[in-house]
């Protein structure tokens, strides 16, 4: 029987239709995308659900790129920002007018942040006005969501006109909040949550001395004694709040911190004791705020209204007991639509708008307070992810792609040398192939592979023979259309550093190519990061998908393929670690402008260098540099004594090492400017960039080897 000549046989010659490429739509998609028609950006918008999760800030433009609409629904056509142009500006070399930043890259849009704040305030203002509510809304931003200095400063500035404040949950957070609010509205709240010791409470009381509107929220009953004692010692009349453990909670992942068994807050028994204690010491008038938290990503207004109504009853009871209540803090929970479904059935979406959320809160509080004849309180919320998620985009690059099981074109399968059983399996496979019997083909493929693997383990087959069997079987599976079409795209990213919530709690974010959206994606893929960790991959995507429609890489043509992770502006940066010593990404701050490019980069920071992440783990890069440099000098001296070696090698070593300490840990796609890669490509030990040494005989200024760390230069 002739061997099955799989090497030169075209796929479409095998029985069965294997020539077409089909990208299945998500089972939850609002529309089925016809991949056989002429492709357009609008089809990509449907395929990736951009019109759902991206509205009103992101869209696919006519050039096939992602556009950012910095002012949301108020963005004028000429104010759209092409994200690819921002990436080009950030990554192009300085000689071409770029900023020479390395990927991965976080792009921040403060205009989007400002719009989110204004929309939240407007939603509450509208609900208050239309429902005849007799107080106002005054929100705070929980800095734990993103403690970046410029984000916090922007929020304080943008929210100053409507008294928007901050919430802190630790001593470093209260320090940064106090500092930033010195430039904010004096009436803005500084809500002090979290577990507290005497130092924390002293800082909060100091805030009142500094005429900041600080509120100490009791998370534990024991904190009350500290507040009473320290306020007397510091001669400060505190403003006190308490966090209540509500009975209302939702069943999703984010509801685990609410309810009677939640991590934070006081029970009704503890609340009553706190009121009695404050009355005994003559400080009941200091109790002014009630705080609660149902949980993040509250899925529906029905659950929201239920929890707010329960809290409003508690608020009215505290008023009845003699507390001078003024504020009800509804906590976080305002969710965002990660998957574009506008559904409350999972942690990935919510079934309401900003306006519906605000209306539900206002109406629930008003109804309870009116029924109890209690003055309407100031409404405070601690919305974090709803404020900052949209304004930040993570850009990263796919550097290569390949199938998990390769179909070789240069390995022959020959019958000689195989056992009789293996030859029998092959003959059965051949017969099934000729009959076009797909199920039997799969059965005999499995039998043949298993038998040959056992033969290899016993030492009866060579690696060439095993490779021949593997190649044959993969070809057959592919030819009958049973192979896994999913490619593995290797991306220049650390999941643990930049998307830790995916690894930690299976949080999904929209991931989309930021260009080529006018071209049909002909592949499906999962994403594999740079870390030496099997968990460093993204194989779950919005819409319940286990792979993502992607374009084929143009590795030969030099084209680069950029992907964006959206709605990740909350938590990811603060939670990210340095697994495998991959540090934080580069960052640019982009404002919409009326200039020729439509935007202006107002701040650009290179990501953490290798030296930075080494320092974070208590290493000393300067000492490491000197140790390695000294080792190179010693070896060079030994080689010279033996009549070999190059007297310049030690200087070249210093140059290579300094660059490696200074560069980001991620792959450098510009190999011509990467010293280490260039050295390897040249098969040399060391490399010195002529441009860096000014073309003279020495390297670095004054003949020294310099280590460039960010904006500073350190001479070793």
Automatic annotation (TrEMBL):
EC number: 4.1.1.19
Residues annotated as domain Orn/DAP/Arg decarboxylase 2 N-terminal: 136-389
Superkingdom of origin organism: Eukaryota
Pfam family, one: Orn_Arg_deC_N
NCBIfam families: PRK05354.1, speA
Protein known as: Arginine decarboxylase
Presence of the UniProt keyword Heme in the record: no
Iron in keyword set: no
InterPro entries with a match to the protein in the record: Ala_racemase/Decarboxylase_C, Arg_decrbxlase, De-COase2_CS, De-COase2_N, De-COase2_pyr-phos_BS, Orn/DAP/Arg_de-COase, PLP-binding_barrel
UniProt organism field: Eutrema salsugineum
Cofactor annotation: Mg(2+); pyridoxal 5'-phosphate
Gene Ontology MF annotations: arginine decarboxylase activity; protein homodimerization activity
Similarity-based family: Belongs to the Orn/Lys/Arg decarboxylase class-II family. SpeA subfamily.
Catalytic activity line of the entry: L-arginine + H(+) = agmatine + CO2
Enzyme active site: 532 (proton donor)
Record-level GO BP terms: L-arginine catabolic process; putrescine biosynthetic process; response to cold; response to oxidative stress; response to salt stress; spermidine biosynthetic process
GO cellular component: chloroplast; cytosol
Residue numbers carrying N6-(pyridoxal phosphate)lysine: 144
Pathway: Amine and polyamine biosynthesis; agmatine biosynthesis; agmatine from L-arginine: step 1/1
Keywords: Decarboxylase, Lyase, Magnesium, Putrescine biosynthesis, Pyridoxal phosphate, Spermidine biosynthesis
SUPFAM superfamilies, alphabetized: Alanine racemase C-terminal domain-like, PLP-binding barrel
């Amino acid at each position: 029987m002739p061997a099955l000549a799989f090497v030169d046989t075209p796929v479409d010659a095998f029985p069965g239709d294997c020539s077409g490429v089909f990208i299945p739509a998500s089972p939850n998609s609002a529309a089925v995308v016809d991949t056989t028609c002429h492709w357009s950006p609008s089809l990509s918008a449907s395929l990736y659900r951009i019109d759902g999760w991206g509205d009103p800030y992101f869209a696919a433009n006519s050039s096939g790129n992602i556009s950012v609409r910095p002012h949301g629904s108020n963005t004028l056509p000429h104010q759209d920002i092409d994200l690819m142009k921002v990436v080009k500006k950030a990554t192009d070399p300085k000689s071409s007018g770029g900023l020479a930043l390395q990927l991965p890259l976080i792009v921040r849009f403060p205009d989007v942040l400002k719009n989110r704040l204004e929309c939240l305030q407007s939603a509450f203002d509208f609900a208050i006005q239309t429902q005849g509510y007799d107080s106002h809304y005054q929100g705070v931003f929980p800095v734990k969501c993103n403690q970046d200095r410029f984000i916090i400063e922007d929020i304080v500035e943008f929210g100053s006109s409507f008294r928007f404040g901050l919430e802190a949950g630790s001593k470093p957070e209260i320090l940064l909040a106090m500092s930033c609010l010195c430039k904010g509205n004096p009436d803005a709240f500084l809500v002090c949550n979290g577990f507290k010791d005497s130092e924390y409470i002293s800082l909060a009381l100091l805030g009142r001395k500094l005429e900041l509107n600080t509120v100490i929220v009791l998370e534990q009953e024991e904190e009350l004694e500290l507040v009473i004692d320290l306020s007397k010692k510091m001669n400060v009349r505190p403003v006190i709040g308490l966090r209540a453990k509500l009975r209302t909670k939702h069943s999703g992942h984010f509801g685990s911190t609410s309810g009677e068994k939640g991590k934070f807050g006081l029970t009704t028994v503890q609340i009553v004791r706190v009121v009695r204690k404050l009355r005994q010491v003559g400080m009941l008038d200091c109790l002014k705020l009630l705080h609660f938290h149902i949980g993040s990503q509250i899925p529906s207004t029905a659950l929201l209204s239920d929890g707010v109504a329960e809290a409003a009853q508690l608020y009215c009871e505290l008023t009845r007991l003699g507390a001078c209540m003024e504020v009800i803090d509804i906590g976080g929970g305002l969710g965002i639509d990660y998957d574009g479904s506008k559904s409350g059935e999972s942690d990935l979406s919510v079934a309401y708008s900003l306006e519906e959320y605000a209306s539900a809160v206002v109406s629930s509080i008003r109804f309870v307070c009116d029924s109890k004849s209690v003055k309407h309180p100031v409404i405070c919320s601690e919305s974090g992810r709803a404020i900052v998620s949209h304004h930040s985009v993570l850009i990263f690059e796919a550097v290569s792609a390949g199938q998990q099981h390769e179909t070789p074109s240069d390995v022959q399968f020959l019958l000689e040398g195989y056992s009789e059983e293996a030859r029998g399996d092959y003959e059965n496979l051949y017969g099934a192939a000729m009959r076009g019997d797909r199920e039997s083909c799969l059965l005999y493929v499995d039998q043949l592979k298993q038998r040959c693997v056992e033969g290899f383990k016993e030492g009866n087959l060579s690696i060439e023979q095993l490779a021949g069997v593997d190649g044959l079987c993969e070809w057959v599976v592919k030819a009958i259309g049973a192979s896994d079409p999913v490619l593995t795209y290797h991306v220049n990213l650390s999941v643990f550093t930049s998307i830790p919530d995916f690894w930690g709690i299976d949080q999904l974010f929209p991931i989309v190519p930021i260009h080529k959206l006018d071209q049909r994606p002909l592949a499906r893929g999962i994403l594999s990061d740079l870390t030496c960790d099997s968990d460093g991959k993204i194989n779950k995507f919005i819409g319940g998908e286990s792979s993502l429609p992607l374009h084929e890489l143009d590795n030969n043509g030099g084209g680069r393929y950029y992907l964006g992770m959206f709605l990740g502006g909350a938590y990811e940066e603060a939670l990210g670690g340095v697994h495998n010593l991959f540090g934080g990404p580069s960052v640019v701050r982009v404002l919409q402008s009326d200039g020729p490019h439509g935007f202006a980069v107002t701040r650009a920071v290179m990501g953490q260098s290798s030296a930075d992440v080494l320092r974070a783990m208590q290493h000393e890069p300067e000492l490491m540099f000197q140790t390695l440099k000294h080792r190179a000098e010693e070896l060079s001296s030994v080689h010279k004594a033996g009549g070999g070696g190059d007297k310049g090698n030690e200087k070249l070593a210093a140059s290579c090492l300094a660059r490696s300490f200074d560069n980001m840990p991620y792959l450098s796609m510009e190999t011509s400017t990467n010293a280490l890669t260039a050295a390897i490509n040249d098969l040399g030990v060391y490399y010195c960039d002529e441009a860096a040494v000014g073309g003279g005989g020495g390297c670095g200024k004054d003949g020294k080897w310099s280590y460039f760390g960010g904006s500073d230069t350190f001479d070793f």
